[in-house]
Prior knowledge:
Distance between the termini: 23 Å
Number of strands: 12
Number of domains: 3
Strand content: 15-25%
Low-confidence stretches: none
Amino acid sequence: MILFVDRVGELSFLEERFKSGRAELIVIYGRRRIGKTELIKQFMKDKDGFYFLARKQNMDLELERFGKKFGKKFNIFMESRTWDDIFEVITKFIRNRRFIIAIDEFSYWMDKEPAICSILQSIWDESLSKTRCFMILCGSTIGMMESLLTYGNPLYGRRTGQWKVDQLSFFDVKNFFPNYDIEELIKAYACVSGIPQYLLEFNPEFSVKENIEETFLNKGNILYDDAERILKDELREPIVYLNIMECINDGETTMSEISKKTKVDITNLSKYINVLKRMGLLKKEYPPTVVERKKRRGIYRIVDNYFRFWLRFIHPFKDEIEIGNYRFESFENKFNRYLGEIFEDISKQFLIQLNKNKKLPFTPLKIGRWWYKDKEIDIIALNDKSRSIAFFECKWSHLRENECRSILEELKEKSRHVKWFEKERKNHFGIIAKEIKGKNRLRRDGFLVYDLEDMKIYT
């Protein structure tokens, strides 16, 4: 049985639209392996409808396949000469019933037949919009699917809702590995992020080390090269995109640095960067104190842990993996340092969980990393309205009380460089670490200190 985790928001959205009773045209999209297909199947369970998975092939063949599958499922004659013919039969078949038509990987059709949106617009306007049809168009090519939402697309104005399916959060990962302790969960999340299909590749009975060796270091497993396959399948210049991502993963995070390292002219670089952002692989990050007019200060970061792990520990060592000369021990020390970076991201998610449960002294409106020149603070959480701000250092280590107090003093000093309502704000200081000794004494002194024991509550 396929494990289906969370997606409460997505299912609630679909159920609410379904209950409207009127014709609905819903666009669902998100990167590959994210769980879109399973989401649709869960939604369609016990409902009247037809699910169709599109293929990358000639559209005449797809027309024929669609007609045959529909006819076979519902035992009706379906002569598939044109899409108009097919949907004329479907419209009569639906009558006044609430009926779902889900076309998965619709972006394959958009690629093969640029006129498909115009064809579907005509069918929707002339027939389906007059029924109680609930149509879902789903796809993984994010740029194409987002084009359905733009003014120039023939389906613009027909769409009644859309949802971009994102990764699961760290705090959902426990559902895949009920026997893992929280440290092992962090290691798993650091390798495969919140991508359901990748999480399912890990055997919950194995340790993370054993899983890495059975998957990433096994050329027959999807995790060994799926990053490369995604870029090759979806992009025309996969090597250029791969070079850009390698560069960013190595720490070159500004446009000028990326251009210099990759030899991509800076005037063309934004085109590639924007595609990777739309794919959900990159984001531009700004200090939370930066106002809109100063947003040129941003840096680029890879936001998909699977790609981060693969680019750092797998892709550069493929030759060694091929001959069996590369094991987990080959990069174990570097992996532990890498976990420190991932722990910072998990700490942000943890603060969001605390905020949801009203466990923070104020309600943050922004949470993120702060930097300016040679000064950096791992996390700042702030509220512009209440003028409240919290500064956090994240440490993937065990800390004694005296070490914490020293870190907090340094943090107070760095906070003086943060130009944000300096004379009006209320400051809070904290640490998030693997383990903190003397936690209660530090809390009595007003510090916001948390460790893995506190995180366990939400896993």
